[in-house]
């Protein structure tokens, strides 16, 4: 069995390589990237693998592919993979909302994987982190509406984002390459282009992808996405309005048992989720539970969560899907 990582030299592609090794996924590995990365070598399971140029013939000997390229490049190579009957798990947003493409978080809707026609999409990182944190609460209380504010790390914008923060932390006058403004010592309330409603592409993903993953076309989400000067791990402040009255103690107990979650909720003793603590591991930390005091019905809950968006928000989630596929 041969697995290809397409976009192997980027932040997500490199993390996919590490996750495949950590999880001891069987099979040979092929690393594909653009011409300028050809010849770069990476160690996988003790062996050096050279990066090959992504081209039409790349998929002839490949069984599964993990996609870590942007939308435009993904649309170019997807027909090449399809022609060779390669089963693809793709991290771009190019096909996420297509009807015949399952959009999967393995802790939530693993059964959708089997409905694939050669392509399974990995959700947006902020969506994955929020939905993993909320899934058990949704099952118990029923979520009607969510208000989410994200605090998204620069590595969500890839290696250029990491470079901008590193360089600008020392010299703020260096222009950004990944962001519209200086990111060091700043916040930027824009991730993706805005539409006529003033909502950014990233902000739409939480509702559109959330509806598809939870199979709930009535889910309502208001989202504000903000880029913050943090290297790694996205954080999210979340308000949920539920069908049933919520119980804070019950919520804590549910998160304590929930797949993919770690309960971090003892604020008086300084215990709450923080992005430094979730960096370079696969679980979503959830805490700061409190009833929303502005809702007298008691149906609303506020919380805070953090997760490593390159791991669980991208590479780990894709590798988990692959593991389900080859099980
Ligand atoms: C960011 N969430 O932090 C974005 C990156 O839809 O997969 C991933 C965009 C996506 O900039």
Walk me through this protein's architecture:
Catalyzes the NADPH-dependent formation of L-aspartate-semialdehyde (L-ASA) by the reductive dephosphorylation of L-aspartyl-4-phosphate. GO terms for molecular function: aspartate-semialdehyde dehydrogenase activity; NAD binding; NADP binding; protein dimerization activity. With 327 residues, the protein is α/β, with parallel strands linked by helices. It starts with a strand and ends with a helix. The model has no long low-confidence stretch (mean pLDDT 98). (2R)-2-aminohexanedioic acid binds next to helix 3 and helix 5.
At CATH level 2, the architecture of the largest domain is 2-Layer Sandwich
* Radius of gyration, in angstroms, nearest whole number: 20 Å
- The string of secondary-structure elements, in order, is EHEEEEEHEEHEHHEEHEHEEH
Structural class: alpha/beta
Instruction: Give the integer mean of the pLDDT values.
Output: 98
Q: Roughly what fraction of the amino acids lie in strands?
A: 15-25%
Unique bound compounds:
(2R)-2-aminohexanedioic acid
Tell me the number of helical segments per DSSP (H or I, 4 or more residues long). 8
Largest sheet: 6 strands, parallel
- The span between the termini is 13 Å
CATH class of the largest domain: Alpha Beta
Tell me the helix content.
Answer: 25-40%
Keywords: Amino-acid biosynthesis, Diaminopimelate biosynthesis, Lysine biosynthesis, Methionine biosynthesis, NADP, Oxidoreductase, Threonine biosynthesis
Protein name: Aspartate-semialdehyde dehydrogenase
Binding site for phosphate: 96
Binding site for substrate: 152, 227
């Amino acid at each position: 069995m041969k697995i290809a990582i397409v976009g192997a030299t980027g932040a997500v592609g490199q993390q996919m390589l590490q996750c495949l090794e950590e999880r001891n996924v069987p099979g040979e590995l092929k690393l594909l990237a653009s011409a300028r990365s050809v010849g770069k070598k990476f160690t996988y399971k003790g062996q050096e693998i050279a990066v090959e140029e992504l081209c039409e013939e790349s998929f002839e000997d490949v069984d599964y592919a993990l996609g870590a390229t942007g939308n435009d490049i993904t649309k170019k190579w997807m027909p090449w993979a399809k022609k060779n009957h390669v089963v693809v798990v793709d991290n771009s947003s190019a096909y996420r909302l297509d009807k015949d493409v399952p959009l999967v978080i393995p802790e939530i809707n693993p059964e959708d994987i089997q409905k694939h026609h050669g392509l399974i999409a990995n959700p947006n990182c902020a969506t994955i982190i929020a939905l993993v944190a909320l899934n058990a609460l949704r099952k118990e209380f029923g979520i009607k509406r969510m208000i989410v504010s994200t605090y998204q790390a620069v590595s969500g914008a890839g290696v250029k984002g990491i470079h901008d923060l590193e360089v600008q932390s020392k010299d703020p006058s260096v222009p950004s390459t990944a962001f519209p403004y200086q990111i060091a010592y700043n916040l930027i309330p824009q991730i993706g282009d805005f539409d006529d409603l003033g909502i950014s592409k990233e902000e739409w993903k939480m509702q559109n992808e959330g509806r598809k993953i939870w199979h709930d076309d009535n889910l309502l989400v208001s989202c504000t996405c903000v880029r913050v000067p943090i290297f790694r791990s996205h954080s999210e402040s979340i308000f949920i309005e539920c069908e049933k009255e919520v119980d804070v103690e019950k919520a804590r107990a549910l998160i304590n048992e929930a797949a993919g979650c770690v309960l971090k909720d003892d604020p008086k003793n300084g215990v709450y989720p923080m992005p430094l603590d979730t960096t370079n591991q696969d679980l979503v930390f959830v805490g700061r539970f409190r009833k929303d005091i502005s809702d007298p019905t008691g149906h609303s809950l506020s919380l805070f969560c953090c997760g490593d968006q390159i791991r669980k928000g991208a590479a780990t989630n894709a590798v988990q899907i692959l593991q389900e596929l080859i099980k």
